[in-house]
Amino acid sequence: MAERRGLVLVYTGEGKGKTTAALGLVLRSLGRGYKPRVFQFLKHERAAFGEHRALERLGVPIEGLGDGFSWRSRDLEKSAALARAGWQRAAGAIASGEWDLVVLDEVTYPLNFGWIPVAEVVGALRSRPRHVHVVLTGRDAPAELVELADTVTEMKKIKHAYDAGVPAQKGMEH
């Protein structure tokens, strides 16, 4: 019989849909009676985008750990400190075994900025309880995560409305 265990999935690439794919797994896991939890490394703690409102209604904990789009930050050390503190919270959730699915949304950004050590994340993924699934999203996933992951999907942008001057739309991008 095939092995049943928690998986590590990575959604990366320049295209739209990484967070949406991760949230689709949250929805699917809820339908099977699993306990999912979502950590968003760029969104701030008071974010109220569409996914926050929906997951709140479904009783899924979603936590903004950042201060918005970090590359626009006026205080990068504060952004880095938020990312490090957020990682400690997320790592604790993974290690606890309380959650069947943990989403680390936009985690590649603080990893690539050097704010969170990639080796620390890899270690946490390797030592997690056997049943815990973890999804990591964001552009430019580090090679170490790609190598460790069970499933890696790269989103490729073909065309995006934003490039034609169409702003982000409620219910589509936020």
How would you sum up this structure, described in words?
This protein is an alpha/beta fold and 174 residues long. The chain is built from six helices and six strands; from the N terminus they run E-H-E-H-E-H-E-H-H-E-H-E. The chain has a six-stranded parallel β-sheet, sandwiched between helices. Strand 2 (36-44), helix 2 and strand 3 (62-66) form a beta-alpha-beta unit.
Report the helical percentage: 25-40%
Sheet with the most strands? 6 strands, parallel
- What's the SSE pattern? EHEHEHEHHEHE
What's the pLDDT, averaged over the residues? Answer: 91
Q: Quickly name the level 1 CATH class.
A: Alpha Beta
- Give the CA-CA distance, first to last residue: 42 Å
The total of beta strands comes to 6
- The total of helices stands at 6
Rg to the nearest angstrom?
A: 16 Å
CATH architecture: 3-Layer(aba) Sandwich
Q: Which stretches are low in confidence, meaning pLDDT under 50 for 5 or more residues running?
A: none
Main β-sheet, spatial strand arrangement: 3-2-4-5-1-6
CATH superfamily: P-loop containing nucleotide triphosphate hydrolases
**What is the domain total for the residues?**
1
Shape: globular
Q: In the CATH scheme, what's the topology name? A: Rossmann fold
Judged by helices, strands and strand pairing, the structural class is alpha/beta
